[in-house]
Specification:
The structure is a homodimer. Chain A has helices spanning about 40-45, 55-65, 75-80, 130-140, 150-160, and strands at about 5-10, 15, 70-75, 105, 115, 120-125, 145-150, 165-170, 180, 190-200, 205-210. Chain A has about 210 residues and is an alpha/beta fold. Chain A has two domains: about 1-20 and about 30-35 and about 145-214, Dihydrofolate Reductase, subunit A (3-Layer(aba) Sandwich), CATH 3.40.430.10; about 75-145, no CATH class. Chain A has a nine-stranded mixed β-sheet, with helices on both faces. The first copy, chain A, is globular and about 45 Å long. Chain A starts with a strand and ends with a strand. The interface of A and B includes residues 12 and 200 of A.
Amino acid sequence: MGKVTCQISISLDGFVAGPNQSLENPIGEGGMRLHDWIFPTTSWRRQHGEKGGADGVDSEVADELVRGIGAYIMGRKMFGGGSGPWDEEWKGWWGDEPPYHTPVFVLTHHPRQPLSMKGGTRFTFVTDGIASALEQARVAAGDQDVAIAGGASTVRQYLAAGVLDELYLHIVPVILGAGERLLEDVGDPVLEPIKAVGSPAVTHIKYRIAKNVS
Amino acid sequence: MGKVTCQISISLDGFVAGPNQSLENPIGEGGMRLHDWIFPTTSWRRQHGEKGGADGVDSEVADELVRGIGAYIMGRKMFGGGSGPWDEEWKGWWGDEPPYHTPVFVLTHHPRQPLSMKGGTRFTFVTDGIASALEQARVAAGDQDVAIAGGASTVRQYLAAGVLDELYLHIVPVILGAGERLLEDVGDPVLEPIKAVGSPAVTHIKYRIAKNVS
């Protein structure tokens, strides 16, 4: 069985989204500054069909982030399409070929038939909670890892439930001052840094999490 | 002229002291967990007259922290002795021979004569603000660095004033959940990570700060 992992970019003052988030701007004001580090990397550009880019530590990390993942779990806000019953026309933010290429389990209160997209991404909508989504994702992933894709409240729920094995933070040297915090109401998990590398743009720290519950 | 630096241990969720701080317990509940990484190091033990200890990255950092510092600045709470007029018997938390071995400028609203201690530490009490304290510390330090020793509110004031050149964070893998934050009301300084190293106990990231004001 694979691990349950999560990787997320976070400001030095602990925010994973800026203030004034909305359905149209779920990342909040200034939130895109948290992701600037990845776009110039060779790895990101290659993953999105573009040539060139910068090699180095950040590109190696961008490669690492997509390796060995057999399924993703994400919250409704990250998938988009409002907060009420589904508009069947909404197929996520990513166009016809989303960058997941695996089964993706979307947490929602509103049932919907699965959606198969180009490139192997298949969205399944889970209405019976985070434990059920994790169980389904584990089966889909086989011996590969299950990645909690976000957003922040979904990560917090899995962290608080004590089922995350690894948390990989990309600590971006910006101070947002306000927004959505990641590490709030998550209890007191036992964390151990197992990797720390960085560039002038970002510092990557991977934490192993001792399991609180089995 | 040397740099103006600050090094401080901080929880992964951004606290530099735990909740329920008091004059008797300025570090707050659980706050001592932020400092556990340094006590077993060879460097710390040697600095405090003890033998043995653990070598490695954390000990090297503990060495680095005391190198090249010509003067310190600290807030009244860090020096201790209550918050009102001085009890002349109070000479800080550190006994007869404090670990600074340089001039130390203490920010306070209450005048007091300087205090010369064993081992070269001399406490000067500054009542006319952080700019004056920095000016006096720069003169005392000569071409060595001035270190802002703490506490958090003193660091925040110097950071917000745009006069810090380096911020060296020891990010401890604990989640305190509450307490005193470091990076709040400090504006939007331009930070660049210039070093990232770590052990299973802590990750050290040194940031260079672009000057906002001269």
